[in-house]
Amino acid sequence: MPTTANGIFRDSISNVSAIVTALGLVPVTDPRNARPLTVFLELPTWETFSRHVADVTMRLRILAPPPGNQDAADYLLKTAWTLMNSTLAVVSGIPSVAIIGTQELPCYDLIIRLASTFEASPPPPTP
Question: Taking the alpha carbons of 75, 29, 41, 102 in that order, is the dihedral positive or negative?
Fold first, then answer.
């Protein structure tokens, strides 16, 4: 089994998870634990501007219980607004359906942006 991840990507996930928790929501980072009434934090994506600056984005999937009726829509919109009204930089959102196992869950996909600076590790020594 590999060791636990570290670095700016793990830090990004941890920071977003802490913010989601502080808002009274339940963050999930392992897809095996994704269920209705949670916010699934997908792995970050990034573009680098230099060796020390990365534009990190993450997709947050707000999961509601089926069926995709008005109750689910109200929960999704309320939770999306809670996240938008926080310190997270939500740049877009789109309603969707998440397939978890064999179950289809109504969801809202939010993209958040995180600018990160980091210290690059020195290159490995050449033999």
Answer: negative
What's the domain count of the chain? Answer: 1
Which residue from 37, 7, 6 is spatially nearest to 20, judged by alpha carbons?
A: 37
For residue 67, say if its preceding peptide bond is cis, omega within 30 degrees of 0.
yes
Question: Token pair for residue 29?
Answer: 């980072």
SS3 of residue 120 by DSSP: coil
Residue with tokens 């998440």: 98
| pLDDT, tens digit (0-9, with 9 covering 90-100), for 55-100 | 889 999 999 999 999 999 999 999 999 999 999 999 999 999 999 9
Give domain status of residue 79, yes or no.
Answer: yes
- The pTM assigned to this predicted structure is 0.85
